[in-house]
Amino acid sequence: MLEHLDALLLARLQFAFTIAFHIVLPAFTIGLASYLFVLNTLWLITKRQVYEELFDFWKTIFAVAFAMGVVSGIVMSYQFGTNWSRFADKAGPVIGPLMGYEVLTAFFLEAGFLGVMLFGLKRVGHGLHLFATGMVAVGTLLSATWIIAANSWMQTPQGFGTNAAGQFVPLDWWAIIFNPSFPYRLVHMVLAAYLTTALVVGACGAWHLLKGTALRRSATMFTMAMGMVAVVAPLQIVAGDFHGLNTLEHQPAKIMAMEGHFESHPEGRAPLILFGLPDQQNKRVDYAISIPGLSNLILTHSWTKPLAGLDTIPDELEPPVVVIFWSFRVMVALGMAMLLLGLWSAVTWWRGRLTTDRWLHRAAVAMGPAGFLAVLAGWITTEVGRQPYTVYGHLLTADSLSPVAAPAVAASLTAFVVVYFFVFGAGIFYILRLMARMPAEAEEAELDKGPVRTAGITPGPAQGNPQGGSHGH
Amino acid sequence: MGIDLAFIWAFLIAFAVLAYVVMDGFDLGIGILFPFFREKRDRDTMMNTVAPVWDGNETWLVLGGGGLMAVFPLAYAVVLPALYIPLTAMLLGLIFRGVAFEFRWRTERWLPVWDWGFSIGSTVAAFSQGIALGALIEGIQVADRAYAGGWWNWLTPFSVATGVSLVIGYGLLGATWLVFKTTDDLADRARHIARRATYLTLLGMGVFSLWTPLIGPHYLGRWLSFPAVIFSILVPLLVLVCVAVIISGLNSQKDLHPFLASLGLFALGFAGIGISFYPYIVPPSLTIAEAAAPHASLAFLLVGALVLIPIILAYTAYAYWVFRGKVRPEDGYH
């Protein structure tokens, strides 16, 4: 029994580790693919060289991040079977086809057109190249849609029955895909991806503005990114609030843990605990700093409606409170910081000082990784908050595990940790170095001539390779 | 009705796996052949022949794996734990060789690291896939809807032999791909390697065919039953035809023929394995019908697959067409 528990814990650690490394990459590439499409479109419409240069600059970074996202994603698609085979057997009939559609509609689309986007401009011309960039961006969004549908079904499952073998049998695909938490989670995640990318692009632009390199490009990307933050950060907070209310309805235990509400408040006036040290064993929050009644107001939009606490949940079905309590606060704090950055940028822009306010630039650099941290904190909140289930209310995590021996899981976990830190550490280093190196030469020429109307967009004929006959005939 | 869909799906999954084997086979082969080409210039060119398409090639592996979970969840749940160690090794290998496509252009000092990562990663991935195949043929024990064997059951002389054979086979695909896509000295050396790899692959297929009936006598029964027996007679002949086409193509500078004929070798070998397995999906424990997902799962994904797979094949073909022609050292994409 003890050995079984060990394997369970190790398998959970392995999933948490590999998904945490993976999720930040799509969060970045979803946003960056859309940004590249915008840059490519602006370049073709305005014919301004700065957009072409920015496209080329971010394209290379996208390629590195995308390659890491692909290989870490393949690991995920096999881990359901290696470590979680009982889950795969039972839930495969429902979430398997959703992931199948992700492969068919999204992965092939991204992969098929990525090569053309990265290497094919001279061969296909500008129109088809823009189309390829668009297809890559659409692919990333479709991918997010399907995988969020699968994940949301695990959180708020519906539309299924059970057969004699204990498998979940799909009864209504519409209900399965559009399960109660899906629309909220999808919006929250896509906005998070856009925010994450905007913060990275903004930090990169701010860095170069501070250093005084390539000012035109730095200013352009910084302005675009901060505009995005100013618009999306408030939207994201609204979306997050709706998502939270949806969770309260369908997974109340998760909200109780996020709020640190060990006790029920039958007469309402549940306090909003800003900080404190939750103690799940003794069911209390030590050193709590709280605002009376505010949690009630946020969650029920009323001071006096009753609000249940974890005392209504059997102990063995409670999620781990400490983790969720903190991860939720980290996410919210980062979200508030993003909102402030967006407001500050808007005010500075209004005063015409967006590209010269050095304190704003320093703040933007500091906030560069904030999106990644918020994404991780948010996913920890929602996934740990689903515990002790894999399929909420229907399949316990402990019943999802493969019949695996702890040493096998420990060995593979060690291998993944070593390889991921080595490989993705190198990848992050290369991405940072690519961001730090912005060639300045073309910049000067452009400043001299003003906006270049023709350079770079000469529609090269779709290159019918003169040696095209070399197909071995 | 449900049974019919299961067989259609067995065919589609087999198709995805074959598509993976031949497509990622040649780009894994490029990595396997890296040690034979020491010059950076050659390696750049070799990498550039597959850089625009490798990601799409590898997606078929995700379709094979993800599709298996969707339509044969029980097979997925049994096979993956049984092959825990080789599959983990494969995933780690694929990580190294996948990132190498981008990383090796981003550094000079660490170029050897990513060159080795590409080469060893490709070889480990290929070897692991061969081991997985061998272990599947030898059979996987199932009890109570779960894998019931040990963690090292996959490691046998037979599975090691299939692992080595697949590395050689992918090497052949890589070499004939290079003959097709490169020029001059690089292509000449690829021809030389392709010739040797052809004979070694033929040897591997021969050993495999003689060894398999010793592993499981029922396989021999399958081969000699009607109508499979027609195929059993035809396959060796067609294999020899493919070998002849490869060798004559290499000798007469018909650069596409060896690649197509080596794809043919893989298709023949794959069909032979398919016939041996039928009607099992996990021999000798689970038949296709037993492992199939509920009808609603099969039908829902089949609609998408029948519409989308032709579209995927069309734009994949387009991507190959865009990057057609010989790749020369001077016109690198990076």
Can you put this structure into words, describing what you see?
- The complex is a heterodimer of chains A (473) and B (334).
- Chain A is mainly α and 473 residues long.
- Chain A has one domain (2-449).
- Helix content of chain A is 70%, strand content 6%.
- Chain A contains 14 helices and 6 strands.
- Chain A has a two-stranded antiparallel ribbon. In chain A, strands 3-4 form a two-stranded antiparallel ribbon. A two-stranded antiparallel sheet of chain A has the order 5-6.
- In chain A, helix 1 runs antiparallel to helix 4, helix 6 (182-211) packs antiparallel against helix 7 (215-250) and helix 6 crosses helix 11.
- The longest helix of chain A is centred in the first third of the chain and has 45 residues, at 2-46.
- In chain B, a hairpin with a 3-residue loop joins strand 3 and strand 4.
- Chain B contains 13 helices and 4 strands.
- Chain B has helices at 2-33, 40-50, 54-71, 73-82, 84-103, 111-138, 157-181, 184-215, 217-224, 228-251, 256-277, 288-291, 295-322, and strands spanning 142-143, 146-147, 280-282, 286-287.
- Chain B is mainly α and 334 residues long.
- In chain B, helix 1 (2-33) runs antiparallel to helix 6, helix 1 (2-33) runs parallel beside helix 13 (295-322) and helix 3 crosses helix 4.
- Chain B has a two-stranded antiparallel ribbon with strand order 1-2. A two-stranded antiparallel ribbon of chain B has the order 3-4.
- Chain B is globular, with a radius of gyration of 20 Å.
- Chain B has one domain.
- The interface between A and B is large, with 78 and 76 residues.
